Each structure stands twice: as structure tokens, then as C-alpha cells.
Amino acid sequence: MRLLTHLYQHWLGFVIILYVSVFWLCFYVIFPIEYYFLGQSSAIASIIFLPHAVRVLSSWLLGPKVLFALIPAEIITHMIWGLEYHTYQSYLIPFFSASSAVLAFEALRMMGYQVYPNRHLKPNWLGVIFAGALASVFNSLSGAYLKSEVFAKDDFLEIIARFIIGDIMGLILSMFILMYLFRFIDRRSVPHTSRAMN
Question: What's the domain count of the chain?
Fold first, then answer.
């Protein structure tokens, strides 16, 4: 129990637990709903993929070192939820997925675009969304290519579009949830005397 507590308190363990938990939510709640309404293609690319938000926001906060958490988290989720490791492509998928957000943020940084958190500046939320979209492009191209053996060639562009839509929708939805959650926490933390004076 103490080991689990220490793991949870450290950023590496926290990111892994959060990623696996969000993937669990997607696999058992969102994916079945999508499969019911959208059919077989939803099994390849979800239109609301919440784990992408964990990749993007953790990469934004922690930088490239987050790969030490995201790569194991990707491997764990792929091993638990049905990816069969029988081809070299299967081994590469977790690494490309985990790296997509870091590559996006680092590409923007090298181009001189400030997106990473800065104590002297307000968070650049539009920059975070843009980086998430760029990460989604990296992820969708690599994911669609590596999974090309399991869907028809004619569906390639549709699958890429679904990857991008799913990643961006998952990121935006998660950011809205976090925004309202933080506002709720801020309101709850305001002392009663301050509320009375207002």
C-alpha cells in the first residue's frame, strides 16, 4: 500500500495511473457506445479519445521526460486491451503514440513558438490545443500506417480523419472538464468571510 502511495505521488506513477485509468474508461464506456452507433471502424479509431489529452497535457507540463511514463503506459494499455504483439508494427505503435505529443511541443519550441508553461506568462491554451492537433497528425499518420493491415485501403483517409477528430475532441473535452473542475475547486476554497463581504 505504501509503495502504491509513493507511486501515485510521483509524477511518473501519476501519469501512468491516469493514462491507464482514462483508457479503461474509454474501453468500457466510450468505445462500446461508439461501436453500437458507428460500427466496426470505431474499433480502430475512436471519435472521442480521452487518452490523447493525457499525452498532450502531461507533455505540456513535464516536457520530454514524460516519455518515461507515457511509453510504459502505452505498452500496458496495449497489452491489457487486446493488441496482439505478432508483428513489428505492433511493437512500434505504443512508441509512436507516446511520442506524438512530445514531438509536437518540441517542434513548436524549435520554431520559436512558446507553448510550454512559463511562470511569467499566462498559460497559452490555444497553443496547447494547436500542439495537440499537431500531435494528432503525427499520431494519426503513424497509427493509420501501422494499423493498415487491419482495414481496407479505401478506408485509409477516413481512418486518419477519425484519429485526428478523436484526439482533438478528447483533448478539448478534457480541457473543458478540467477548467470547470478547477473553477469549482477555487470557489470551494474561497473563505466564508470573503463570500460574505462580496
Answer: 1
Residue 197 lies in a domain: no
- Domain that includes residue 119, residue range: 2-192
pTM of the shown model: 0.82
Report how far residue 66's alpha carbon sits from residue 45's, in angstroms, rounded to the nearest whole number.
24
Sequence-ordered list of residues with C-beta below 8 angstroms from that of 89, at least 6 positions apart, any chain:
146, 147, 149
Instruction: Decide if 171 is inside a domain.
Output: yes
Give tens-digit pLDDT for 60-82: 999 999 999 999 999 899 888 76
How many other C-beta atoms lie within 10 A of the C-beta of residue 182?
10
110-152 pLDDT, tens digit per residue, is 999 989 988 888 888 899 999 999 999 998 888 767 766 655 5
Helices (H), 46-155: 51-62, 67-80, 88-110, 125-146
